[in-house]
Every structure is written in structure tokens, then in C-alpha cells.
Design goal:
heterodimer; A: about 525 residues; mainly alpha; two-stranded antiparallel ribbon; two-stranded antiparallel sheet; 18 helices; 11 strands; B: about 1050 residues; mainly beta; 22-stranded antiparallel β-barrel; five-stranded mixed β-sheet; 58 strands
């Protein structure tokens, strides 16, 4: 101390040093309070906030147009994606999907098959968090919103059960490893949820068209019962051990949609820039379609519209930007169409013109672009091989790739075909014939000779209904379910596909899920 | 609070009273420097013999004794490890006597003082792995930012520039990277203040691709201002930085003024850069020739051949070399003006820097205008010292559009390869007769004229960054110094983009303009107390304790509009576009709080022990895991001072060993919270109205905690033949556990996204580092001096565990037909950077690629038990894919020499890395013959294979190349002289320098040193990077 000659000053300066020491005590708070994010404890407190949550559950529907749509189209007899020179190889993913060659760790096993699980379950999770919040907040139309969310959640579960068989069921937000329910248990869960939801759902949401209605829930139930034997059955290594049929309920709920009062088949009087009647149902103006029961809404805004046409269209198919020239319709499916069925016009074949200007277009080598049904070599297709689905025409006002098209998940024509199928299975073949012809007549305007004749056997009628579903619903994501119900999905052969192992009727549980949740058991055969 | 206010009042009052008495008494002011390094020495005790008066030197080596009686005073300066010195000084009333002490180390000639973080140490007392680079030696050639000073000069420090673009970022890896998802960047500390590593530049627009990867965080620093760069490598050295030390620490000290040495310096250089390499796309004639050959090739189907005839007939007549059209001789100029000086109490240095670099590709460059002021002042007889470092810079970046990506249509570099050589650059518009850029058609096209793309797109950035810190230290007693540092790092980045209506990109949007802003701010408060008591002559002891508080506040904003009626507004009037997009904004805040202590003890200048303890709190982690303790212990033993070592050939031999724990917290904030945000993808349309969805955007992990690395280090520092050869040999082992890893989680209806940030898995790095500095030839009488240095390092990385995840796919392959293809897998038992794919086995008779087929057997648990090659296949399956390469080098090497002969100096630096693989993604995509069916050009090598035109590009070992290289990084030749008729000019140096002059490599792409951001912990992937220049520089430095 005596080294310093002024102890008083030293003490004062020492005091200065205590200031930061004092600061130290106050500055140990490390609580995070995000400013551009919010936490769930502070949210879902009023109608608008609940609606923001509901919106996010719907937004997840767009995922149906990603990997799940690819599975339904490309792994069935509907579509094929040949390798086109340097394009569309993607490590063999498309060929693997088409050949049903997946395993838990294969190219599509790691990507598409894992994506479907995660995307559909994300919808479930989004629904769960809002449903949980609704337990603690009272909002206008609360009961209907709860029904809406439960039906949406059931829809996601239906896709999951369709894809994977037995899966875990979560109805709360607890993060935990859950037990796997059997497929039949999932079926029962979905059935109960949809039945309870339909009872509270409105027939329309005024001014908010696109939200899930009673009609949509009924369409889901009709679909559920239509596929009941598969979906309440048990997947095994040698295919599905079928469950009990539920044809009566399938017919009843299809009927409920038919008689709902909100829906009618589009006739020539329903017009659009893409044609009238049947064709107007798929136009970018189709939010006005009288036939739509449940759709993935699209609007011509980046990220909010429909763009699946790009998969099929050639680089030069339209002016102002080109398609991606990949997906084609399987030759056998195209050829199954009656040449005079106008619905075949939703598939582009032959010499091509600009879809906007009508001027002839060339391929990239400078020769006329011609789409041919035959693909000579699935590993080395040229630009024009394969005919192309163009059911959902491009929106001239699209933003980026986004057309204002609503993608039809359920529409009335399918409900009529579901009722027909159920009635035929119940032995009422003639009732079925009348229903099929209600739909079929639009394919053959003024050509009654093309309608189904009376007196078909139940078996023939069954085949006719499956065919009619192809003609009517190609490109709408139905073919895989139809073929599984029909029993032709794995055993069937078509261009680029030989018979696959019977256990492929369900996908493998993604390996990442098995790894992270020991309570899951891999599906038989994988 | 009241107490604190009172204390503050007392403190301020104390300061006001504290004016030193003047009058009949005098002052001694002085400075102590190290004899070898000439660097200031801190903590040297100065006493006046026969009195009780004394002082201790500060950071700048200065001391001051005021209020001394007139007459002669005998000053004695002592510091452990140095010979004491005594000087008699005459004190005159009312005057200040100046004195300078040059202390000699008593040990071998290695007594330099090294900055070690929150203080400095004599080099020989250091027990951790620390390497210092003298900036004056390293600052040769075009050094645009401080990280380049480290290139090839420090063992275990690997610097890879992302590309040859001016201002491009760099990957700096100290002893490799052990993090997979969290950052592997080191912590930069400038004049004691940790820098925020986040990219300061605002982001651009990613249309059909992601915006280019980040720029260098140190672009705002002028390399000429740097006096030394110190790299802390092991845990013993970095544990004092606790949670931020796991990736090593780079300490940058800037130059300061010195008492009585008023200097002024002007430095300038001008450089010209030329692109060093070409990808060799086909010329017009070669392209026609290839078409003809493919028309004749019967492996191609008849229809394809017919189509090619049509194509050949329709080709244009030009012969354009698009690479050449895009390139230029890039001029760089740099001006640096500084002046420094000071009196006994105040020193300063001020500098101004202007740097203007052109890119070797059209329409891009980098400009920096930077000013710095460093000032130091002392009062109260040198007991109170205040320092200020202030620097502000303005960086202007002129970006090249679509640098690395651009989606299907591609950016400048893609189109430089694919745009047909038969197309011209310009055409005459048939209507207006004006010259305009050639495009393949109006509107959005599959290919874009690359020159047009470069010239038409406006993409400019401006970043203003201000670094400021104030240091005050007060010696309460000579042995007890208290220090308070306050630092601030603020930057504001603005980015303006305009895609004109006529351009190949903008036409799709009818003009697109975007303005983006990014503001980063972090503030640091440090309080330190250093106690260095004198405990007998044999014991050296000091202890430092401190507290540090840092907060981060980062904001982003961007707004885009489209659909303009005119290009006249460019980006300046966003309202002129009629189609506004959803604006984006974001704010992130984080805090770090730390308490730390370090004690150094030395005995007989032979045995040293250092202990470090730091307790860190970070806001980024779960409530229960915010705090963690990071300890380290290390010691060293100067063996050569032991009597038994006298017979050894070492003039110095020191054994160092250390062990410690480091942390990594470099992940985005809020990952532990269940947060919701309006996600653009969560919007949906009801009726005709777009509703904004609010979604949980993350799976919260309330248990999130630090990633921890334990590192042990053992080393020998050696000197042979009186230190003529010296260096060190180090071994280290670093094991990182609780990795902050984004992993798939169990998704059963409660996860919002498919992954979660968790603490899972372990990675290990082991390595060896060797350095040698040799004074090869010293002949003072002949004026000749040659020194050489070598650094050599070997590092082995291994992933030990990934928790329940079998592997992580990473390094997504770019190119058409490559969706979902990954080039690398992170697999337990393998290094990060393992390439995974099929083995290429040549071509079959029809020219199709063949791959080795394997028969794999697995046990019941599905684990591979054997793998037998079984012929070849054209269609490799999951079993045919395996590890086919390793992006990590076997070893890396830096070799340098400095030669002086009278007034002439010369230096060179070689660098090598051996045994590393590079995936040439560029070749995979652009050396594929199928390109011609799409009227795309290709790289020449692709035209020489037997493949049929329809053969797809398959990622395989065919595209994994040996990326070993040996590079002449720099050669410099200088001449120093006194300028005649120059008046006050002291010395003048002129030099010529060349960078990247020679590159020996088998790699066929632009450059084997590559980095593209292709996914999690991706290494060694080359895709369309900006060509690296070869640069020739002439420079001049005048000191007055």
C-alpha cells in the first residue's frame, strides 16, 4: 500500500472498478424473448389467430401434390417418367417408383417415401396444436372449426394409412415415441372422427369457399368405406389380408354427397376458357365448378398455385417459358381410352402446337415436336416420346409456375362412380349401370351407343367401373388406390413394370422413423 | 442500484481530483520492449531504487512516474524470464524525462510477447498451442482481407477461399472442423473484442436458385492495419473463450502509435489479374464436328440422328468463346495512408485505406474505403491508461448475377459453358436497327446469353461496418491491474437488385427490383482484474479474473416488386412496380454472459502451469442448460534448462501438454423454444382471399445445450544450433460430443417439421502439426540473409456416432436429372467429407457407362457383413453404392523463404495439399454429350467419350478426381532505398509480386481448392465456381 503515496485517491479509483462489478449482477438474465416469432402460449387467443392456425393445416394440403401425388401416379399404371438423355434420371428415383422397387433405404425410400410420412404427419401436427388451443379459447363457430380440424386430420391419417398401413395415432401435442396402431384401428379412428365431424360441419362456409364442408367429410367417408376391405385389412408379406366390406356405407355416404344439394355434374352450360362441361372442371377458373367437393385451392400467386402441368409439358410446349418435359402417360392407359372419348383430349398426343398461340412447335433439335404413345427405351427416351397429361391447363396469368387451378381431391363424378361400385358389389348391377352412364355420357356427347349396355354381369360391370374411373379420373391421384382395390397394383404389368412383390401395396415405414422410434415395426416383407 | 450510483459519483469525482501534481517536481515516462520482437512488454515492474515508488507497464509497454523530486533517479526494471536492467535518469523540475528499456530474455532467444486472449504472455511461458504471424512478413501480394495472412503460414490452419470473386468468403478451419450442423468458423477477436461472424452483407435475390454464399466477415478490416495475427489452437489456449472457442480463436491486433516516433507512411499497389484456367467448352467448329460424329454414331437411335441433322442445319454462324467474352484483365488498386506518433502520455495511429478490386469476370468487383484511429492515453503517473480503437469501413460489392446457381436456366458460369459457340454476343434488331444482346428467343428461355446476364442485371451491395472499442486499465497496485473494455460492432448492409424488363431473367417478371437490408449489432463489456504479485525470484505468478457480457441484435428486411412499366427507376423506386411481393423482415437477439479466470504460474523459468476456468451462459439454449463450465489445464517444461539436458543437441527444448474443454454455441437462436411464425408456405386461399397461416416453424428442443469438445495437446518446442533452427511438433486429439446436429425425429403427429436440432453424436479429429523456422544463411558482413519456414499438418477426422441416425446424406449434386442425388454421406466410422456413390468401371460396347456390381450380405440386424464385387451393371442399385473418396487431404504443407541481400528482398510461398478428392460436379453436368440434344454446348472432354447421346449423367467415382495440388502462392521481389531529393523520407520500398503463379494438379476443373455450399458439412465439391485469378502486383511504400 505504501507504494502509492495517496491512499485516498487510490480508494476512490478502486470504487470506480466496482461499477462494472455491480453491472455483473444485473446482466445474467439469459431468457430468450423472440420478437419476430411468437410462442404458442401467447397465440390462438381469438378467432383470427385460430383461423391463422386453421389456414396452416389447409396449406399442408399442397403437399398432396408432391411426393404423394408422384406415388399415386408413377407407381401405378397411370404414369411413367422415362430417363430423357441427361434429364430426369435423378439417381433412378423415377424408375424405382415406377417399378415399385423401393426399400427403406433405397433412393425413393430415403426421399419420396420419407417425405410422404413427414408431410402428411405435419398436417396432423398442425391440426393437433390448434385443436389443443381450442380447448382453452372460445371462438365463434368453435364447434364447426373443431369438426373441420378433426376431419382434416382424419384426411391426413387416411393418406398415411393408405400409404403405410398401421401407423401411430396422435391427437395431442405431446412429443413422444408413440405405439403403432394396426391398420384396422386407424380405420376405426378415422371413421369415428369423420362421422363426428360431419355432424357439426356446415354445408358451405359463406365467403370462404375451399374450407372443409359436410360434403367433403362425406366424400372422405365414402372413400374410406369404398376401400374398407383394403384399409381395414392387414398388410402381410404376401399382400393384404382383406377386411370386411362396407359397401352399404360407401353407397350411403356417396349418396349423401350426391343429394347434398350443393353439387351437380358440370354440363355444357358450365363454360370456361378451357372448354365447357367436363373440361371446365379442371380449368384455372375451376373454383366455380359445381362438381368440386374438396380441392386443394390454387391461386395465381407464387407458391400458392398449381404447377403439375410443368412435369409433363415439353420445353417448347408454350410461349413464355417452358415445361420440364418429364412425365408421360403409360401407353396402355392411353390406349385404353376409346379414341372418340373426348376425355382423352386431356392427354396431348401427336404433332404439338403452342398451347397459347396454336402455332406449331419444334423440339430442341429444330424438328416438329410429336408426342408418341410408345416409349422405346425407358432409360433413353427422346423428347417427344410418351403422351402427356394436360388435364389442368396452364393459366395465362400464372405467377412463376403457379396457375390458379384448384386440384380436385373429391368431385361429384367420383362420388357417383363410388356409389356405382358399391351398388354393383351389393348386387345392384343395373343401378350401377345408370350411375356409370351419368358420368360416361359426357365422354361421348351425342353418341349414346357408347354408354354401358344393360345386362352386364357383376364382374364385367366391376371392370367397366374401374375403366371408367381411369377415363374420368386420370391425373387426379386415384389410380394407385384403385389398382390396389382391384388387386392389380403389384401383380399387374404395364410399360416399364413387371410384377412386383405383393408386400409393395404398402410402403416401408421410413428408416429414419424406425431408427428414432423403437416402438415402430417395419411393414412385413421389407 | 443506489449503491452503484453512489459509487459512480465517487468514481467520477475521483477522476476529477486525480490530476497529477505538477510544479517543482518532474516526470519519468518510458517504455519497455522485448529485444527480439521489439514488441511492447506488459506487466514489467519498474521501481526507483531506494524509494517505495514504482509502476507496472501496460499493454503498450509504457509506464509513467510523476511527481518525482528533481535529481537523479535509478530505475530498475524486472520481469521474470528477462535480465533485470538498471538506468540512471535525470529528473528535472517541470519536465518529463523519457527512457526506453530493451529487455533481453534470459532463456534462448524466444522471448517474444504473444497476445493470448484477455492479456499477453511471454512466448516461452505459454503452455497452449498458439501460433503468431507477423503481419509485415505475410502482407505481400494482393491481400484483400486478413484471413489471407494465415494462408500457408500456420500449421493446422487451413484457409480455402470460396472462389476467385473479389470479396469472396473463405473457409477457415483450425485443426479441421468437428461440427456437422453448427458453425466450424473460428472466433475472431479484434483488439480484444470478439467479432460477430454472421454475414454482414444483405442477401440478394434467389430466382431459380439460392443466392450466392456469404462473404468474408473480415472484409471490413484493412490488412495493412494489422500488426499481428495470433491463432489459438488447442483447448488450453482457447478455453478462456469458453463457449466460442471450440473452433479455435484468431486474435488480430492492430498497429499502434509509439511515443516520440512520429511516422507517416504511404503504401500503394496496383495489380492486374487474369483468370488462371479455362473449362474448355467446345468451339464452333468442334461443336459442329461433334454433331457430325453423333449423326454418324450408330449407337444413337435413327430418330435422334435425324434430329441432329436438323439441328446442325439450323446452327448459327458465329464462333464465340463465351469464357473469353466474359473475362477481362482485372485491375486492382490499393492506397493506404497512415500516420502515427505521440508524446509521453498519448500515442495515436490513424490510417485510411482505399481498395478497389475488379473481378476477372465482367461487371463485378469490390471496393473498400476504411478509416481507423487507434489512440492511447495515460494519466495518473501511468496508472490509468485509456485506449480507443475505432474503425469504420464502407464496402461496396458489385455482384455477378447468379454466381453459382440459377436453377434450370442457370447463371453466368453455366451459360458460359452451355450457350452455343455458334451464337453471337450481339445482333442487330431487325426493327430498330440497334445492336442488342442475342437471346435464343423472347421471354424466358432455356439458355441465357451470359454476357447479357452479367451486363444487364444490377446487383449492388453496400455495407458499412463500424468497430469501436474503448479500453481503460488502472493499476490499483503495481501488481493489481483492473481493466474495463467496451466494444461495439455494428454493420448496416444494403443490397439493391434490378432485373430489367428486357433481360433474360427480368422479362419473366416484366422487371424485378429488390432492396434488402441487414443490420448486425453486437456489444461487449469486459471487466478484468489481473494480479501479478512478486513472489520471490524463482516464482512467477499471475492471475486474471473477469466478466464478459455480449449481446447480439440482428435484423433483416427486404422488399421486392415486379411488373415495371419502365427500366428507368431500376431499384430506386420500388413503388414503380405494380406487383409487390410479400416483404420479409426478421429480428434475432442473443446474449452471452461469462465469468472466467486464469492463473499462470512459473517456477525457475523452467516449469509453467496454466489453469483456466470459464463459466458461460448463452441465451440460445434450453432453460436448464444455459450455463456451462469450460476448464482447461496445461503445463510446460523447459527441458533444455535442466542440467541433464546439457548434452542434447537442443539449444531449447520444451515439452508442452494441455487438456481442456471447449464449447460451440454457433446455432441460430430460439431453437429451444416452441415458436410460431407466419410461413409463406402456410398461406392458403379461402374464397378469393389469401389467408396467412401461422405455424410452428421448428420442433422445439427445450433440452438444447452446448456442443462440447475436449481436446488434448502434446507438443515439443525446439531450437537447435542457438535457435538457428526452431519450431514445434504437436499432436492433438479433439473429440466433440453432444453435437448440435439437425437430425430426423420421430414423427408421429406432433412434429411440425421432419427434423430437430439435438445434441447427438460425436466426431473426432486427430492430428499432427510440425513447423520449422530456419535462419538458413546469415552473413551480416555480406548483407545476405536467408530464412525459410515450413509448416506441415496432418489431420484425421472421423465421425464416431450419429445417435439413432444411420447416416446423413449431404452435398446435393447440381444439375439436370440430379434431383435428390447426394454426393456425400456422413457415416459413423468415416470422415466428414466421404464421397458415396457407385464405382465407375468403364464403358460397354454400346458406350454405356458400367459400374461395379456388388453382392452384399447382411446379418439379421441389417448390418453389412461382406461385400464382393460381382461383375458390372449399367443400373447401379443401393448395394452398388459405397464410399468412393475422401475430400480431406492426407497432409498439407506450406513452404516459404525470405531472402535479403543489401537492399533487395525476395520471398516466396508454396502451398500443397496431397491425397484429397474433389467431386467435379461441373464435369458431371457439362461434360455430358446429351447436352447437344438440348442445343447446349459442353466441355471438350465430354465430346471424347464413346457414350451414346442419350446416356445420362450418373454420379459415380468417374467424377471424383484427385485434387492434390502444389501451388506457388506468392513470389515477391522488393528493393528498399532512400529516395534522393526526398527531404524527410526515411525509407522507400518498391516491389513486384505475383500471386497464384503456378499450380500443379491433376484436377481438370478450374481449381482444386473449392468450396460450394452444397448442404450440411459438405466438403470438396466443385460446381461452377468463380475462376481464380493469377495476379501480378507492383507496389510502393514510402515512410516519412
Amino acid at each position: 500500500m505504501s507504494l502509492f503515496h495517496n491512499p485516498v485517491r487510490t480508494a476512490r479509483l478502486g470504487a470506480l472498478l466496482l461499477v462494472p462489478v455491480g453491472l455483473m449482477v444485473g446482466c445474467t438474465d439469459l431468457k430468450e424473448t423472440p420478437t419476430s416469432l411468437i410462442t404458442k402460449d401467447t397465440f390462438y387467443k381469438n378467432s383470427d389467430e385460430v383461423l391463422a392456425g386453421v389456414t396452416s393445416v389447409y396449406a399442408n394440403l399442397r403437399n398432396n401434390l408432391e411426393s404423394y401425388y408422384s406415388l399415386n401416379s408413377i407407381s401405378s399404371a397411370e404414369g411413367v417418367v422415362p430417363v430423357r438423355g441427361g434429364d430426369w434420371f435423378d439417381n433412378g428415383a423415377w424408375l424405382e417408383l415406377h417399378r415399385q422397387g423401393w426399400t427403406p433405404n433405397s433412393v425413393t425410400g430415403l426421399r419420396e417415401i420419407s417425405d410422404i410420412w413427414n408431410q402428411q404427419y405435419a398436417g396432423v401436427a398442425r391440426a393437433n396444436i390448434v385443436l389443443e388451443a381450442l380447448e382453452n379459447v372460445t371462438v365463434a363457430s368453435g364447434a364447426q372449426i373443431k369438426g373441420e380440424l378433426r376431419a382434416l386430420r382424419a384426411f391426413y391419417y387416411m393418406q398415411l394409412m393408405d400409404a403405410y398401413g398401421g401407423i401411430p395415432i396422435a391427437t395431442d401435442t405431446k412429443v413422444e415415441q408413440r405405439e403403432q396402431a394396426t391398420r384396422a384401428q386407424v380405420f376405426t379412428f378415422i371413421e369415428r372422427e369423420l362421422r363426428e365431424a360431419r355432424a357439426v360441419l356446415p354445408k358451405i362456409w359463406p365467403g370462404q369457399q375451399g374450407r372443409l364442408t359436410q360434403g367433403a367429410a362425406d366424400a372422405m367417408l365414402a372413400t374410406l368405406y369404398l376401400n374398407a376391405r383394403v384399409w381395414s385389412g392387414t398388410p402381410t408379406a404376401s399382400g393384404i389380408t382383406l377386411g370386411a366390406p362396407r359397401w352399404t356405407e360407401a353407397s350411403a355416404f356417396a349418396d349423401s354427397v350426391i343429394n347434398n344439394g350443393q353439387y351437380s355434374l358440370a354440363t355444357a352450360s358450365y363454360t370456361s376458357p378451357c372448354g365447357s362441361g367436363y373440361f371446365a372442371n379442371f380449368c384455372y377458373t375451376n373454383q366455380t365448378s359445381p362438381e368440386n367437393v374438396f380441392v386443394v385451392r390454387g391461386i395465381a400467386l407464387d407458391g400458392l398455385g398449381f404447377n403439375r402441368q410443368y412435369n409433363t409439358l415439353h420445353y417448347n410446349s408454350f410461349s413464355g417459358g417452358g415445361g420440364w418435359n418429364g412425365w408421360a402417360i403409360v401407353e396402355q392407359t392411353f390406349n385404353a381410352f376409346d379414341p372418340v372419348d373426348v376425355r382423352r383430349n386431356t392427354i396431348l398426343s401427336g404433332p404439338q402446337v403452342d398451347l397459347f398461340t396454336g402455332a406449331p412447335v419444334n423440339n430442341r433439335q429444330g424438328a416438329r415436336l410429336i408426342f408418341t404413345p410408345t416409349i422405346a427405351n425407358i432409360n433413353a427416351a427422346d423428347e417427344g416420346e410418351g403422351v402427356r397429361l394436360y388435364k389442368f391447363p396452364l393459366d395465362p396469368n400464372r405467377a412463376g409456375n403457379a396457375s390458379g387451378t384448384d386440384f380436385t381431391i373429391y368431385r361429384l363424378a367420383e362420388m357417383i362412380l363410388i356409389k356405382a361400385e358399391a351398388q354393383n358389389e351389393l348386387g345392384n348391377t343395373e343401378i350401377a349401370r345408370g350411375l356409370v352412364n351419368q358420368v360416361r355420357v359426357r365422354g361421348f356427347p351425342g353418341n349414346a351407343s357408347k354408354l354401358l349396355p344393360a345386362g352386364l354381369s357383376q364382374t364385367t360391370m366391376r371392370a367397366s367401373i374401374f375403366s371408367e374411373r381411369v377415363f374420368e379420373l386420370t391425373g387426379e391421384g386415384k389410380r394407385r388406390q384403385d389398382q390396389i382395390r382391384e388387386g392389380t397394383y403389384t401383380s399387374g404389368t404395364w410399360f416399364g413394370k413387371t410384377a412386383a412383390a405383393a408386400h409393395k401395396v404398402v410402403l416401408p415405414i421410413p428408416q429414419a422413423q424406425i431408427n428414432t422410434n423403437p416402438k415402430l415395426t417395419q411393414n412385413p416383407g421389407y | 442500484m443506489k449503491l452503484i450510483r453512489g459509487l459512480m459519483a465517487a468514481a467520477v469525482g475521483g477522476l476529477l481530483l486525480a490530476n497529477p501534481a505538477q510544479g517543482q517536481r518532474g516526470v519519468i515516462s518510458g517504455r519497455v520492449v522485448d529485444s527480439t520482437s521489439q514488441l511492447p512488454m506488459q506487466s514489467v515492474t519498474v521501481t526507483i531504487e531506494g524509494t517505495q515508488r514504482g509502476a507496472v507497464t501496460g499493454v503498450d509497454g509504457a509506464f509513467r512516474l510523476a511527481d518525482l523530486p528533481a535529481g537523479s533517479a535509478r530505475l530498475r526494471v524486472t520481469r521474470i524470464g528477462y535480465s533485470p536492467q538498471v538506468k540512471d535518469v535525470a529528473v528535472q523540475a517541470g519536465q518529463t524525462a523519457t527512457v526506453r528499456f530493451v529487455l533481453q530474455s534470459v532463456a534462448a532467444n524466444l522471448g517474444a510477447v504473444v497476445v493470448t486472449g484477455y492479456g499477453s504472455q511471454r512466448k516461452e511461458a505459454i503452455t497452449g498451442a498458439v501460433v503468431t504471424i507477423n503481419a509485415d512478413e505475410a502482407n505481400v501480394g494482393v491481400i484483400a482481407n486478413p484471413t489471407q495472412l494465415l494462408t500457408g503460414r500456420a500449421a493446422g490452419v487451413n484457409v480455402t477461399l470460396n472462389s476467385g470473386e473479389p470479396g469472396a468468403g473463405a473457409q477457415i478451419r483450425i485443426r479441421g472442423g468437428t461440427s456437422i450442423t453448427a458453425s466450424n468458423d473460428p472466433l475472431y477477436v479484434i483488439d480484444g473484442v470478439p467479432l460477430q461472424n454472421n454475414e454482414a452483407q444483405a442477401r440478394g435475390v434467389g430466382i431459380g436458385g439460392t443466392p450466392p454464399i456469404g462473404r468474408n466477415p473480415l472484409n471490413a478490416i484493412n490488412p495493412s492495419d494489422i500488426s499481428s495475427v495470433t491463432v489459438l489452437k488447442d483447448a488450453a489456449a482457447t478455453a478462456i473463450y469458453g463457449s466460442r472457442g471450440a473452433n479455435g480463436v484468431v486474435l488480430i491486433e492492430t498497429k499502434r502509435g509509439r511515443t516520440g516516433q512520429a511516422t507517416m507512411e504511404y503504401e500503394t499497389y496496383a495489380a492486374v489479374g487474369v483468370a488462371a484456367n479455362s473449362l474448355n467448352p467446345l468451339s464452333s467448329a468442334e461443336y459442329r464436328d461433334l454433331l457430325s460424329r453423333e449423326i454418324a454414331n450408330t449407337n444413337n437411335p435413327a430418330a435422334t440422328r435425324a434430329a441432329l441433322v436438323t439441328q446442325r442445319n439450323g446452327l448459327g454462324t458465329a464462333n464465340t468463346n463465351w469464357e473469353n467474352e466474359l473475362r477481362r484483365n482485372a485491375i486492382t488498386q490499393n492506397h493506404n495512408l497512415s500516420f502515427a506518433g505521440g508524446n509521453q502520455t498519448t500515442t495515436f495511429r490513424a490510417s485510411l485505406n482505399f481498395n478497389d478490386q475488379q473481378g476477372v469476370v465482367l461487371s463485378n468487383g469490390f471496393q473498400r474505403l476504411q478509416a481507423r484511429l487507434n489512440g492511447n492515453h495515460e494519466a495518473l503517473s501511468g496508472r490509468l491508461r485509456i485506449g480507443l480503437n475505432l474503425s469504420s469501413s464502407r464496402i461496396q460489392d458489385d455482384y455477378l448475377p447468379f454466381e453459382n446457381t440459377g436453377g434450370f436456366e442457370g447463371g453466368v458460369f453455366q451459360n458460359a459453358v452451355i450457350f452455343l459457340p455458334t451464337n453471337p454476343v450481339f445482333v442487330t434488331d431487325p426493327v430498330t436497327q440497334a445492336q442488342r444482346f442475342f437471346e435464343t428467343g423472347p421471354g424466358r428461355q432455356e439458355r441465357r446469353n451470359p454476357v447479357a446476364l452479367a451486363e444487364q442485371t444490377i446487383d449492388e451491395g453496400e455495407t458499412i461496418r463500424t468497430l469501436a472499442n474503448v479500453t481503460s486499465s488502472f493499476s490499483i497496485f503495481p501488481s493489481l491491474i483492473a481493466q474495463v473494455n467496451v466494444g461495439s460492432d455494428r454493420s448496416n448492409g444494403q443490397r439493391n437488385v434490378y432485373q430489367p424488363r428486357a433481360g433474360s431473367v427480368g422479362s419473366e417478371f416484366n422487371g424485378l427490383a429488390q432492396q434488402s437490408q441487414r443490420a448486425l449489432s453486437n456489444q461487449t463489456l469486459q471487466t478484468l482484474l489481473t494480479w501479478s504479485p512478486t513472489i520471490g525470484n524463482d516464482i512467477e505468478f499471475d492471475a486474471t479474473g473477469g466478466y464478459e457480457y455480449t449481446d447480439f441484435d440482428n435484423r433483416d428486411f427486404s422488399m421486392q416488386t415486379r411488373n415495371f412499366t419502365s427500366d428507368a427507376f431500376t431499384f430506386n423506386n420500388l413503388g414503380a412496380g405494380s406487383l409487390p411481393q410479400i416483404p420479409q423482415s426478421n429480428q434475432e437477439q442473443a446474449r452471452l454472459v461469462s465469468f472466467f479466470g486464469r492463473a499462470n504460474i512459473g517456477y525457475k523459468n523452467r516449469y509453467f502451469l496454466t489453469g483456466v476456468l470459464r463459466r458461460d451462459g448463452s441465451s440460445r439454449f434450453g432453460d436448464a442448460n444455459k450455463w456451462a463450465v469450460f476448464p482447461a489445464i496445461s503445463g510446460s517444461w523447459l527441458i533444455s534448462d535442466e542440467s541433464f539436458a546439457k548434452g542434447l543437441p537442443f539449444s531449447q527444448l520444451k515439452l508442452r501438454a494441455g487438456y481442456g474443454l471447449q464449447g460451440n454455441q454457433a446455432v441460430a437462436p430460439y431453437a429451444s423454444l416452441a415458436s410460431l411464425a407466419p410461413d409463406g408456405g402456410a398461406r392458403y386461399v379461402f374464397g378469393n382471399t389469401v389467408f396467412t397461416g401461422i405455424v410452428p416453424n421448428v420442433n422445439p428442443n427445450p433440452n438444447l445445450k452446448w456442443e462440447q469438445s475436449t481436446q488434448s495437446n502434446i507438443a515439443f518446442d525446439y531450437g537447435i544450433a542457438d535457435g538457428r533452427f526452431s519450431g514445434s511438433l504437436e499432436f492433438y486429439s479433439k473429440r466433440t460430443t453432444d453435437l448440435l446436429l439437425t437430425v430426423p425425429i420421430s414423427q408421429t403427429g406432433s412434429a411440425f417439421v421432419s427434423t430437430q436440432l439435438q445434441n447427438i453424436g460425436a466426431v473426432q479429429n486427430r492430428g499432427l502439426e510440425f513447423s520449422l523456422d530456419a535462419r538458413m544463411y546469415e552473413r551480416a558482413n555480406r548483407g545476405l540473409n536467408l530464412t525459410s519456414g515450413l509448416v506441415f499438418s496432418v489431420e484425421r477426422n472421423k465421425v464416431l456416432d450419429l445417435g439413432p441416425t444411420d447416416f446423413i446424406e449431404t452435398s446435393s449434386v447440381s444439375g439436370q436429372g440430379q434431383s435428390g442425388v447426394n454426393a456425400q454421406r456422413i457415416i459413423p466410422g468415416r470422415p466428414i467429407g466421404a464421397f458415396y456413390g457407385a464405382e465407375f468401371a468403364g464403358f460397354n460396347g454400346t458406350g454405356n457407362q458400367l459400374f461395379t456390381k456388388y453382392t452384399v450380405t447382411r446379418n439379421a440386424a441389417g448390418v453389412e457383413t461382406s461385400r464382393v464385387a460381382n461383375g458390372t451393371t449399367t443400373d447401379p442399385g443401393a448395394d452398388d453404392r459405397l464410399v468412393i473418396g475422401d475430400a480431406n487431404p492426407n497432409f498439407s504443407l506450406g513452404l516459404r523463404s525470405n531472402l535479403t541481400w543489401h537492399n533487395i528482398d525476395a520471398s516466396w510461398l508454396w502451398r500443397a495439399e496431397q491425397g484429397r478428392d474433389v467431386f467435379n460436379n461441373t464435369a458431371l453436368v457439362y461434360a455430358t454429350k446429351g447436352a447437344i440434344t438440348a442445343q447446349r454446348n459442353l466441355i471438350r472432354s465430354g465430346s471424347e467419350t464413346p457414350e451414346p447421346i442419350s446416356e445420362q449423367a450418373v454420379y459415380s467415382s468417374r467424377w471424383i478426381e484427385d485434387g492434390s495440388f502444389f501451388r506457388l502462392q506468392n513470389v515477391t521481389l522488393g528493393y528498399t532505398f532512400k529516395l534522393p531529393f526526398s527531404g524527410g523520407a526515411r525509407t522507400t520500398r518498391v516491389y513486384v509480386s505475383g500471386d497464384n503463379l503456378l499450380l500443379f494438379t491433376k484436377y481438370s476443373g478450374y481449381d482444386p481448392e473449392v468450396f460450394i455450399d452444397a448442404g450440411t458439412a459438405s466438403r470438396g465439391v466443385d460446381y461452377l465456381s468463380y475462376p481464380r485469378p493469377r495476379t501480378y502486383t507492383t507496389g510502393l511504400r514510402i515512410q516519412f
